[in-house]
Amino acid sequence: MAEQRKRKIDDSEGWQNSLDFFIGGVPALGYFEMQSDHLAKLVKSSKKDKLSRLNEVAEVALIGLCAYFEAFCKAHFASLINICPETLRNLLERRKNATISLRHVVTIRGEVATRLGSLMSEEYDFGSAKEINGLYQDLLRITPFSANEAKKYSRFLGDRNLLVHHGGVFTYNYASQPFARRTAPGLPHLDSLVIGLKEFDSWNSFVLGIATKIATTSQSALEGFIAREKLTTSPEQTGAIRMLGSSR
User: What is the pLDDT along the chain (248 residues), one digit of tens a residue?
Assistant: First the structure.
């Protein structure tokens, strides 16, 4: 009985140590799913303005969704390197001038190797499908966004940027873009983008799908990299790898 209790404690500590590889101590996919779920519930309980037909809650939620997804891409990228710093060999083949700030290195307590990804991710921009594809391609030779998905993500960013920089009011640049399946945008500098429950749910479903794709394909790619390089992983690393593609 005592031996079983000891094994249970040891397993718990190993699981806890595996979480140390993740930013915030939480696997990025599960955390993003939780955030998107909270936003979806918020939008579902909201109501549009009777006069303008606009739903400010849905608009702000869409902006938040974009921010959370970008944070997911950055945090997941960091965790891959934290778990297996050897993946930086791939990155350095493509980005020979890749660096990290020594000022940040000296602030780290404990093993620098398990925080290299956290440091490295701060040096890059994850603000577009092209940049995300490029970083994951250089690290693990995967491209999360297909050509069609990249175009759709660009439309998502276009809606987000219109809300953030123009309050949702159409601009000439926005209205002139031939977006597939977009309703008639209306008149520039007069009409506004309408974001409601339907629009939010559609974008939420899309970015959740991309996040899941990033998590699962990078998990498989990391396992393949470790096998090809004949690397030995600790129980904590193995546990963290299993968590990479896990949902909540």
Answer: 434 433 333 444 444 589 999 999 999 999 999 999 999 999 999 876 655 578 899 999 999 999 999 999 999 999 999 999 999 999 999 988 877 666 666 676 666 767 889 888 988 999 999 999 999 999 999 999 999 999 999 999 999 999 999 888 888 777 666 444 455 556 677 677 889 999 999 999 999 999 999 999 999 999 999 999 999 999 999 999 999 998 76
Q: Is 180 exposed, middle or buried (0-12, 13-18, 19+ CB in 10 A)?
A: exposed
pTM value is: 0.85
Tokens 């398990």 — which residue? 114
Pull the structure tokens for residue 185. 């945008």
Measured CA to CA in angstroms, residue 146 lies from 9, 65, 153, 238, 248 at distances of 44, 20, 10, 29, 26
CA 86, CA 119: separation in Å to the nearest integer? Answer: 15
Phi and psi, residue 236, nearest 5°: -70, -40
